[in-house]
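Continuing the batch. This is chain 6 of the set; chains 1 through 5 are on the previous pages. Same settings as before, nothing changed between runs. Recording input and output for traceability.
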Amino acid sequence: MLRCVLKEGLYSIVQFDNTEQAIKAATSQWVSLVLINLVKINKTSYSYVQHALPIISEIYEQIDLRALHRMIEDRLLYLLDQIGMNCKDTVIKRILDFVERHYSENLKLKTLGDLFHYNSGYLGRLFKSVTGDTFRTYLDKVRIRKAKVLLESGLKVHEAATRVGISNVNYFHVKFNKYMGVAPSLYKARTYKRRGNSAL
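Output for chain 6:
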């Protein structure tokens, strides 16, 4: 939607029946307002907008209105893409942090979507595009990593599974074996064996 607004705004300025200098001045004012409003809408975009400020002086360097239109459109759309990527990374970082703190709870994409104000389907695609994993896979990996520590501390397999939010012990066995390459009970036994040897 923002892309359309930018294109329409730029098009309307260039359509003015005015001198080239007047159009460049109007474009300069319009671009300044766009940049200011981008920062107001999204505080994290400040550094990107700072780097984009030379656009304003470049407006007056364009040889004709067609070049001006193309330069502004390219630069502003590129800026929007950068800000968009930053927003995506930011929301995923917040979700990853949330998962680290709440991995033992009954986490679902729908819940996170509601919490972070995203459609769950879109959030799932976004999550995978940033992390490389589906949300379920990522959550399983976090839980297994946490369970590993619990097993090393002496907890029984079913206790570790429950503690990290996996109530089905068979599911826990399958996932632990998948990500650790060994059954949880064997992992625990090996850990104790290593500890015993190191204590000698």
